[in-house]
Amino acid sequence: MHNQFFTVDYQSATTRARLGTIATEHGLVRTPVFMPVGTQATVKTMSPRELEELGAEIILSNTYHLYLRPGHDLVAEAGGLHGFMGWNRPILTDSGGFQVFSLATLRKISEEGVEFRSHLDGSKHFISPEKSIQIQMDLGADIIMAFDECAPYPADRSYVKRSKDLTTRWAKRCKEAHNRSGQALFGIVQGGVYHDLRRESAEELIELDFPGYGIGGLSVGEPKELMYEVLEELIPVMPGHKPRYLMGVGSPDCLIEGVIRGVDMFDCVWPTRLARHGMAITRQGNLPVRDQPYSRDFRPLEEGCTCYTCQNFTRAYIRHLLKAKEVLGIRLTTIHNLAFLIRLMQDIRQAIREERLLEFRDEFMAEYGRGR
Amino acid sequence: MHNQFFTVDYQSATTRARLGTIATEHGLVRTPVFMPVGTQATVKTMSPRELEELGAEIILSNTYHLYLRPGHDLVAEAGGLHGFMGWNRPILTDSGGFQVFSLATLRKISEEGVEFRSHLDGSKHFISPEKSIQIQMDLGADIIMAFDECAPYPADRSYVKRSKDLTTRWAKRCKEAHNRSGQALFGIVQGGVYHDLRRESAEELIELDFPGYGIGGLSVGEPKELMYEVLEELIPVMPGHKPRYLMGVGSPDCLIEGVIRGVDMFDCVWPTRLARHGMAITRQGNLPVRDQPYSRDFRPLEEGCTCYTCQNFTRAYIRHLLKAKEVLGIRLTTIHNLAFLIRLMQDIRQAIREERLLEFRDEFMAEYGRGR
């Protein structure tokens, strides 16, 4: 039934939302999906078993980080990322493009690629589209991304156009360099908040016929309304039978609004990072459980939540652990935050199936928005 | 069958080792036992579920730390330590005596108790024997300890004698202050490395008729041989039908030698602390898995180990996590180290049952000692 890479199982009649299935050698992924981020071959504080129990069907890892440490050759020797980290479900790696631009220092961009210094030890490196693909073939994820330049926000039109054109030329080189079967290479649409550049980017990449498309360069500081407008203009241009992946986006409101506009895949460090800052995501808004008012609060992080944390521990205990800098405090908060987003995506899929996604959005935001 | 607090199920004919069972309201503990330490109401990095899966039957927590943070009144409100931390098996709390002497500053010891400043914020506090017992009744552990003065090593005989005498007077006050049913209060034998003082201490405490006895003030810097000699002199004086708990001791050689000499219970932060330093305990000695030679070692921490870590992850992966300062690295190493010691105690109990504990010691140490 799912012998093709992506199947649209149901197209909503009232919004651009759809239900789909991505089929990989490591199993199926039901879309729309949120992918927890495992930057350094581990979703921070979590074991693979815990991720499976939460129902995570795919995770993301980072080419830039793994290239620097422990090195893609070592990961390849370990049997690829799946074997190295003991995760047997699907994995997506990004190309390193975004990280080179956000983490590395002294970047020098040329037609050939990017020269930069490592954020770890200042050592000098060069990544080209071909190199990024080679690294990602060594890492062996199920889905990999083309090497792109991610323009900052704000940036003027001429810079964004040059950057988008370069990304297209690099995408072509990525495709030519890629020759690992059972691994899907996605192109990345750029173009900032300029609708015509976004459309151009999409059309140029569609010509290269990738099995899926990332939407990059959003959620980089622009107002959310601008992001939603880009999605509304861009997605009708994108092929209906291929997955659309909105990169680096993961707050509940953006997930719902993204799905309504036709996005199938998301990833974000937000839920795990929020946990490290002592914040829990709940339907009533984000809860600063690290704070004093929760020291004698013997309720779970979220009433009714079925995750391991909420079934067994109180806000008071988690607050104690966070104050005492005990690892279990971050672990328990991370478990809950990921459980929240994975369950939110399940609820979204259910709402699509029942053609009540817009009502779901309004109900959810009335409660969540009030709490923040 | 186990309606009394402690039952000796089997007394070895060839050594002082014995098999026993401690019966508490939260379940049975088979002795000899190693108790993982959960200083701040959490065994560092571990969840209660993971501890249960490792077969931990009892854990230890610290009165001094919990009194300072989050406070014993808060823990009592949460339903005691069991409810607070979500651990439903037996718990032992120490009295705070040792921590006041090892962590707090500006201590002033008087007949009444100890005045000290918190290691957290420098605030001034006073703990008396009665206060320690009140705190421990609030925490609600299954086994609690008398408030003692732990003399340093080396210390001259006259100091150790005065300290031992004070500990005996405090033990009497602890017993008078204690009135929580279902909770066993142990006395603590002191006396440093002076055999006659140890015997005096034991005899004085036996007169007070505690349900069990701690052996304190050992493993504080003295050579191991001196510790073993104290055990050989002391244990024949101690009652045979009550558990003997050698406090703060947990290295494999000391566990085996302690059991041979008649010890039933042990605790130590060593396995969890070792894990945080990137060291794994194996039968071949302690493995510095954080080090470069393990970066491409795709074997488990210990061949043949059945713990979650060894069944699923390699030294190379754990080394990567430790180098990248990822929490999962310490988690996985901690799981293995605790699994190692809990399995060692199972092996020791089996060896007692089969009257081959001395052979087990020799075989174990031939391999473990060589590796260090």
Short summary:
The first copy, chain A, has 372 residues and is of the alpha/beta class. Chain A has helices at 48-54, 63-68, 72-77, 80-85, 97-102, 129-139, 157-177, 195-208, 224-234, 252-260, 270-276, 308-312, 315-323, 327-353, 357-371, and strands at 6-11, 18-24, 27-31, 33-36, 59-62, 91-94, 105-109, 114-117, 124-127, 143-145, 184-189, 213-215, 244-246, 265-268, 280-282, 285-287.
What does this structure look like?
The structure is a homodimer of 372-residue chains. Chain A has 372 residues and is α/β, with parallel strands linked by helices. In chain A, 43% of the residues lie in helices and 18% in strands. In chain A, the strands form four sheets. An eight-stranded parallel β-sheet of chain A has the order 4-14-13-12-11-10-6-5. Chain A has a three-stranded antiparallel β-sheet with strand order 1-2-3. In chain A, a hairpin with a 6-residue loop joins strand 1 (6-11) and strand 2 (18-24). In chain A, helix 6 (129-139) crosses helix 7 (157-177). Chain A is globular and about 60 Å long. Chains A and B meet through helix 13 and helix 14 of A and helix 13 and helix 14 of B.
